[in-house]
Amino acid sequence: MDFNMKKLASDAGIFFTRAVQFTEEKFGQAEKTELDAHFENLLARADSTKNWTEKILRQTEVLLQPNPSARVEEFLYEKLDRKVPSRVTNGELLAQYMAEAASELGPTTPYGKTLIKVAEAEKRLGAAERDFIHTASINFLTPLRNFLEGDWKTISKERRVLQNRRLDLDASKARLKKAKAAEAKATTVPDFQETRPRNYILSASASAAEQELRVAQTEFDRQAEVTRLLLEGISSTHVNHLRCLHEFVESQTTYYAQCYRHMLDLQKQLGSSQGAIFPGTFIGTTEPASPPLSSTSPTTTAATMPVMPSVAGLAPPGEAALCLEEVAPPASGTRKARVLYDYEAADSSELALLADELITVYSLPGMDPDWLIGERGNKKGKVPVTYLELLS
User: Fold this and answer.
1) Are 194 and 40 in contact (CB under 8 A)?
2) pTM > 0.70: yes or no
3) Which of 142, 144, 206, 387 lies 20 to 30 angstroms, CA to CA, from 45?
4) pLDDT tens for residues 253-274?
5) What are the tens digits of pLDDT across the range 66-90?
6) For 288, phi and psi rounded to 5 degrees?
7) Residue 331 belongs to what H/E stretch?
């Protein structure tokens, strides 16, 4: 019990000394040991890294989960070390409503059939969103959160220890300075017999202050080296966060590519069904179905206008579509292209594609700029430009 009281009194004395030193520094009444420029730069970079990591983390959480109530709920589950319950995405919820509407309004009606198709697409979009959120949380948010809750807490703790060591060092310097001043003043007093004991006491006090200063300086230097090594580790943190950022971009690219593919398939399904429901309606183009009338006589027009080969699915109304096997590629203008994603042909005029395969592509006069003619061996067909990466 006596030992604990002594330790408590010692700690209270140290705390009081540090408080006095800190207050005097704030009022400019005491000198402060300054850190070197390199150390200050390390501190500034660490603070900047921490601040921006927090902002990026919070905003990414908002991107993945815009609902603030849901974010608070997930935060509470994490703090309680409980598994976050599975939550239906907005796309999946919309798909559920559309499927229920189609069931009630009539799944065999044109509107009901379309609702079912859109519901299936929205369900796939919701599943893709769920995968993206899961991947981004593991590969991007978790490393950022680990830095803030792990490495940064260690750095902050060592910085507080360094601050206390600096206050102890500056307080020791102040005590030594006062002891030296008192000793110098005592030497100017005449050497009477009664002054000698006091001189011995002042000399011993100055020696004790010097010893205390040496110990404080050693502890400060040791703590400064520990803190400096931790601060230099911020460079490794940047490298790790850079890798995580690349993984986040990769997962986001995959997510948007899946969404685009699902919506493109849905657009094709709706286009074919709408063509059957509303004859004469063309989806995806604003060009007139036939060229405007001209004052030139039919004979003159046939003599002056070149005859362009028609591609299946692109021929004007009233004309028979030319089979793609009969269309010869141009003498120049063919290019190689790499397929980015799998593509299922909607009809016999299109060419099915597999990701990463190489095909030969070219364009024909009058073709839709969003499509090209693709060749693989002896097979030909229309292919969408958005699925290709032109190489040469």
Assistant:
1) no
2) no
3) 142
4) 999 999 999 999 999 888 766 5
5) 878 777 877 777 766 677 677 888 8
6) -65, 150
7) none
